[in-house]
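Friendly challenge for the regulars: who can give me the structure tokens for this chain first? No prize, just bragging rights.
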Amino acid sequence: MLRSLYSAVSGLKTHQTRMDVIGNNIANVNTEAFKSSSVRFSEIMYQTTSSASSGNGASGIGGVNAKQIGLGVTTGATSVSITNGGAAETTGLPFDLRLSDKNSTSFFVVSDGTNRYFTRAGDFYVDGNGYLCMSSTGYTLQGWQVDDKGVVLKDTVSPLQVMATKNMTSAPEATTKGRVTGVLDKNDPQAADTGRIITMGFFDDLGYQYTAKFNIKKTNTDGTYTVSLTDIIDSSGLNGKSIFDLDNDGNLITTTNADGSINYSYNGQPIAVNDIFANATLIYDQSDGTFKSIDNTGAANPGRTVNLNLEALNTPGPGQANNPSKFRNIEVDFGDSMNYNNNKTSTIGGDSGNAKGDGKGKALGALKGIYVDSDGKIYGSYDNGNTVLLCQISVARFANASGLEKIGDNCYQTTLNSGEFDGIGVEISADGSAINSGQLEMSNVDLSAQFTDMIVTQRGFQANSRVITTSDTLLEELINLKR
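First reply, four minutes later:
Bragging rights claimed.
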């Protein structure tokens, strides 16, 4: 039988394999993060009919090359164009993530609960248990967790539960600083009579909001005022009542000590107002109306701040096992207030936090949004203004990414030639790469190249089929020798 017949058959098989690969590439032209494949042909063994001989210089006869006849072709390799990224498709969805590679190929790490797989397809969603999962398979996205101090634990990857119960709220913060700003008109009739009332809001440790009311009253000395605490209102309550005990007429229950100081009733127990806030002396420079000093301790060198000692309310009274109050002392800065003639209009008022916004305090925050930054860090934003790091996406990189094995569903698994995954992963930005939120990676199939390969493959298949028909003709002629 003719060797050409079998060589042509092997050519048909290999060109059919190539056509199968091209067909699969074209079928996945719109598959997210699909990586096209290509077929490489390789010669099959050769039959040597005559070995090579060396030349003989003495006789003048030269050497003769070997006589070899090829026996066809086979599929040498099927390579995946895994390092060529696809174009970006903008979706606007926060958990559609695209890996933008810089110097190496990165993969998301996902798990089916037993095995870890790797994918470039970043279409994730939050499932009913709060985990980030692949839309197509439900495999959970893996990454690093964060400890109670907000430090990323880069020890081992585990499922990322962004909507965990602990992430639904942000811890409140007690107010520790406050400030009084604005103009206290030097001719303010209210300050000269009953006193100008100003307020300052603040939070306790549990995030409940309160309002401290101060009375600023003019003395007989120009530019000198007394500052006293008159009440603390529970602003979190519907009725905005005082935190101190009230009588049936809604007035504060007070008692007067022998030295003339006043006690308020708090949770049924008397507490000295001076223990919370002793009357302070506020002094302004009359030459330009600027702040000079404030003091309620009798210090030799008064400064610009006084303390609102709210922690005095946290001490259990006689007969109380504990006190539910969770207040913190507040340092109140009067240094930015002024005192001059402002047409009898005072704008002075209080606010929580210092000039930089530190120590402002916050209410208990409810989760209102989640976003992913370019480093793969996932943050939660809360309605109290807090932004908290929830977890971080880690990626996998391999010594030979092309050695990964496709297993379907846009996933890969490791092989002996790809290198193993260490169970930890790396940060996406380690080599300058990034994660783009609101985008997906498209297929890297080049249709023009695929159709060109299809034409070449078709012609190769036709040529091999012609070899078979020609070989068949030769065999027919051979058979026809016997008539």
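Residues 447-479 form the longest helix (33 residues). The longest strand covers residues 224-234. Your move, everyone else.
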